[in-house]
Every structure is written in structure tokens, then in C-alpha cells.
Design brief:
With 346 residues, the protein is an alpha/beta fold. The chain has 14 helices and twelve strands. Helix 4 runs parallel beside helix 7 and helix 5 crosses helix 7.
């Protein structure tokens, strides 16, 4: 059996704060294979970005952050290697596209210099070769007149152009894994589509795996192979994309899917809302973390944390009542809508 491109096992990420230690990522386990796009979804603050930053060890390990578990890449646990070894992996084997290109790109250097720096650092080539490679990558990402654009600064480019520059920089060394942290946020719909198509094209060209972090389930349905759903630092459901939408097993996943606006049917129907608030990391519930917002919750949910159940080999869920949810939802739109009404009424 072929090894996974990246394997994360029981990852915990702790932060030291003035109020004490908090665990922002708690026992997270998943894998990514070559050629697939893994979607990571959930509300803001659920741990998506911290998980990605933990993979690349971008957090402040000297003063605030610490890790437990394993992050396996090429038979190495990235949590055990030196910072020097980690720097050789960042941008070379594993690259990342951040949410906000304007704040991620250095405003005082040209985009050409920033892409060339990555290439020269990892590929030990001359400035001339790096410049040619930078132009090639800008051209590959669809930026017109790349020979001229490499001399421009980030503020001279549009939001879509800056995002393409980030992609060009991330892929300059042809990494095997690309982490995309909400790469289409704040872009208009047309540009979003172009960026998504570009990433899919480059994934095929370079035979990569992609970790796609987003809160947009429409994008997930379009581009992802498998999906993990996160809530308050934990993965509550994992499935291939078709099964997740056809047969959601966790009430939180069901709530997210029901919250997607429906452009057909009753126009006066109110959008579904997941009631309640996400608990803080300083006061994590003893049992199921979603219990205070869940219409299916009972005393067991409030006092005992559910294990991860395997509904099928490729569909896992962290919920005591997933069979009840499955029976009520039934795996089709009409029945799921009825379940939605039940949840709302409760």
C-alpha cells in the first residue's frame, strides 16, 4: 500500500496565554494523498488555520506554541526535526498560500524579487536563472506581461493579480503539497473561479496534493476530493465530498449544509441558522463540544465525549447520535429539509 503524502496523527497544538494554556487543535488526525484535494471546513476560530500553520511549524515555539502528536512527511515527523531542516521543507516540499495576499507579500520589494528569493534559497541557482523561472511562473499563473510585472510592487496589482503572485511564489519550487488557506476570500466570483481553475490545473501539472481551507461549501463541492469538518479544534466528520453532501452524519455538518442559500423554491423561507455560540477554548465542554447547540443532544452528550465512529471505511463521525441523524435526514434533499425544520423548531 502506497504511503500517504502527508499524515497527521493525534495533533495537538497548545498556546500559553495570560489566562493559562489552551489547546487550539485537539487530537486532529487526517491524511492527504498525491493528486487529491482535501477540503477543511468550519466556522472562523475552529482551528483550520492553526492546523495548517502547525504542519509548517509557523507558530512561535519559543514563547507560546507547543505541539504533540505526529506530522509525517517522507517518513519524518516534522515536529521532531530541527528548524534548519524545517526551513528546507517550507516553500520547497510544502508551500502555503495565505488568506490575505496584500499582508503576506512584502510591500517594499518587487514581486519579482520575492519569487526569486524563494527559488534561489531552495534551488541554489543564479539570479539570472531565478529571474527566468519567476517570469515563467507568473506567465503560468495567467499574469499578462510577466517581464514587466516582475518589476512592480504588490500595491500596483489588483487583488486577483496579487493572489496569482502568491500562487506563483508557492509553486515556484514545484512542491508536492500545497496548503491553500482561504485563497479566494475577498475576491469577486469571476476571479474566484479563475483562481480555483488555476489551482486545479497546476495540481495536475505538478502531481501535487492540496489542503484547501475554506468556509465556502460551494467551493468544496466543486474542487475537493475528501472533506474534514472542524469544530472547536476537533474534526467532527470526515468523508469523501459526495457522501458528505448526500449523507451528512454530524448535526454541525448538517447545519452548515442547510445554511447554504437555496436559489430555488420558496423565496420567503428564512435561511437556516445554527443557534447558540461556539464555546471558548478557556471553557471547553466536558462532553461533546457541539452539545450546547445541538437539537439531538442529551445528558450523555453533555457529560461524555463521543469517540470517532466509522460509518463506512471512508466516512467517520464524532457523534453519539449519528445513526438517528442518518435516519431522519435519509440522504435526500426533501428529507434533509424536513430534518432542518425539526432542528429549527427544537
Amino acid at each position: 500500500m502506497q504511503a500517504h503524502l502527508l499524515e497527521v496523527n493525534n495533533l495537538k497544538t497548545h498556546f500559553s496565554t495570560e489566562k493559562g494554556s489552551v489547546t487550539a487543535v485537539d487530537n486532529v488526525t487526517f491524511h492527504i494523498d498525491i493528486g487529491e484535494t482535501l477540503g477543511v471546513v468550519g466556522e472562523s476560530g475552529c482551528g483550520k488555520s492553526v492546523t495548517s500553520e502547525s504542519i509548517l511549524r509557523l507558530l512561535d515555539e519559543k514563547n507560546s506554541a507547543s505541539y504533540e502528536g505526529e506530522i509525517l512527511y517522507k517518513n519524518k515527523n516534522l515536529l521532531n526535526i530541527s528548524q534548519k531542516e524545517m526551513r528546507n521543507i517550507r516553500g520547497n516540499d510544502i508551500s502555503m498560500i495565505f488568506q490575505d495576499a496584500m499582508s503576506s507579500l512584502n510591500p517594499v520589494y518587487t514581486i519579482g524579487n520575492q519569487i526569486m528569493e524563494t527559488i534561489m534559497l531552495h534551488q541554489r541557482c543564479s539570479k539570472k536563472v531565478a529571474r527566468e523561472k519567476a517570469i515563467e511562473m507568473l506567465d503560468l499563473t495567467g499574469i499578462p506581461s510577466p517581464e514587466r510585472r516582475i518589476h512592480e510592487y504588490p500595491y500596483e496589482l489588483s487583488g486577483g493579480m496579487r493572489q496569482r503572485v502568491m500562487i506563483a511564489q508557492a509553486l515556484a519550487c514545484q512542491p508536492k503539497l500545497l496548503i491553500a488557506d482561504e485563497p479566494t476570500t475577498a475576491l469577486d466570483v469571476t476571479i474566484q473561479s479563475q483562481i480555483i481553475d488555476l489551482m486545479e490545473e497546476l495540481k495536475e501539472r505538478y502531481d501535487m496534493g492540496i489542503m484547501f481551507i475554506t468556509h465556502d461549501l460551494g467551493v468544496v463541492a466543486e474542487v475537493c476530493t475528501r472533506v474534514v469538518v472542524m469544530y472547536l479544534g476537533q474534526i467532527v466528520e470526515e468523508a469523501d465530498v459526495k457522501n458528505l453532501f448526500d449523507e451528512p452524519l454530524h448535526p454541525y455538518t448538517l447545519g452548515l449544509i442547510n445554511s447554504i442559500p437555496d436559489f430555488e423554491g420558496e423565496r420567503k423561507r428564512k435561511l437556516h441558522v445554527i443557534e447558540g455560540k461556539v464555546p471558548t477554548l478557556y471553557n471547553v465542554p466536558k462532553g461533546c463540544r457541539f452539545a450546547s447547540r445541538c437539537p439531538f443532544a442529551d445528558e450523555k452528550c453533555e457529560t461524555k465525549e463521543p469517540p470517532v465512529f466509522e460509518h463506512t471505511e471512508k466516512h467517520k463521525v464524532k457523534c453519539w447520535h449519528y445513526k438517528e441523524i442518518l435516519n431522519k435526514a435519509g440522504g435526500n434533499d426533501e428529507q434533509r429539509a424536513n430534518t432542518n425544520e425539526t432542528i429549527t423548531s427544537q
